[in-house]
Write a structure and sequence with these properties.
Number of domains: 2
Strand order of the largest sheet: 4-5-6-7
Structural class: alpha+beta
Number of strands: 7
Number of helices: 5
Strand content: 25-35%
Distance between the termini: 29 Å
Bound molecules: zinc ion
């Protein structure tokens, strides 16, 4: 977690419930949030990490799933027509959406998007860590 995809303005607004102009990162790991009212505050990076998961878990509740095979799900949000596929792999879930792709590009070995969280819930898991503990 080291760039603007994770430390985004929208995430900072969700965390602080305030209007945010921009977020900047310091070399020592501190995250500075510049509010629209001119004030500046630091936010613990862990808050962004939690928001990253919570936000996607909340969104995942609106995903409609069809299990095509034991290791393949078709995922569709209630509001949009586009269908994404989630493949169950031994070490991770793989989705065909943009969010999953970007997380991979940003260096996450096991990306997890709202579709993956929906599948995890269907598998009876509360998190990816929870899922990885299961025997195969
Ligand atoms: Zn996805």
């Amino acid at each position: 977690m080291s760039n603007s995809y994770f430390f985004s303005v929208r995430a900072a607004e969700r965390i602080t419930s305030k209007r945010v102009k921009r977020v900047s990162l310091w070399r020592n790991g501190a995250v500075l949030v510049h509010f629209k009212n001119g004030k500046i505050n630091t936010i613990d990076p862990l808050n962004f990490q939690r928001d990253f998961v919570d936000f996607r878990q909340r969104q995942s509740r609106e995903i409609l799933l069809s299990r095509i095979t034991p290791t393949l799900y078709a995922c569709k949000s209630a509001a949009y027509e586009k269908v994404y596929s989630v493949v169950i792999e031994p070490e991770r879930l793989r989705c065909s959406c943009k969010d999953w792709e970007i997380q991979l590009e940003e260096g996450l070995q096991r990306p997890c998007c709202k579709h993956c969280y929906a599948v995890l819930r269907d598998l009876g898991c509360s998190s990816l860590q929870d899922y990885l503990k299961l025997p195969f």
